[in-house]
């Protein structure tokens, strides 16, 4: 009993003098807010998942296009989605876009950040200033479109990668990490041992930067996976569209009036007539969520470490 009391006393003593212990009412309000916030996220996701697993009879009994408690569970919608139709092609295209784009972005960002982090780099201050200016004065949509058009990239996959393959913000974050978290003594020791810049980067700097690289890679991957605006702007005539664009067109076409919209919806769902339309659409939505959900647990430890490091070292 005395040990428990002493432990509680130490925990109270560890609280800063200016940080008063919250009252029961304050804790209750915070808990209620977090509960409502969590419910606002979980309930729609659960409805999407439940509808994707529902049978046509269950949807008819529910009297709508959404269901919260499926009595009969079926994977027919997922079998139809992944059977090789338009949705499958769109998913594979988006996976390829994400993999290629993330790899290119990481190579460019790492190279530029390491070069700008070295004090002896040629024109590194001028180049850093020019990059910072892009954070303050972003190019407009029309000039960007003209550049992509002049490069001949309209309706090409590279139009979804090259305009956004380099992030000034990620560059600044990674450069700051290299300068503050990688000891200069290690780099000097590597140079004394005869290592060049590339060997120093790959053998010394990058192994110590796994956490921040995982976080920046996740940021890039999520951005490419959720590509929508650039696809609508630069690739309206692309035969295979990113999954986000395909789902948006599918949802709008299936709820629009008969005619062209109905024909577009039928073209997307061609070969998927054995599952309810609502289940097919929700299954497609779930398929867009799964890759990020699978990726995050492997990056979570690096993400937490990078956030803590950034908060401490500013």
Automatic annotation (TrEMBL):
Sorted alphabetically, the keyword list is: Cell membrane, Membrane, Transmembrane, Transmembrane helix, Transport
Q: Return the protein name.
A: ABC transporter permease
Q: What is its main location?
A: membrane
Transmembrane region(s)? 32-54, 91-116, 128-145, 157-178, 211-234, 280-299
Identify the residues that the record assigns to the ABC transmembrane type-1 domain, covering every copy.
91-299
Mention any one GO cellular component term assigned to this protein in its UniProt record: plasma membrane
Pfam families in the record: BPD_transp_1
Q: Which organism is it from?
A: Glycomyces algeriensis
**Cellular localization per UniProt:** Cell membrane
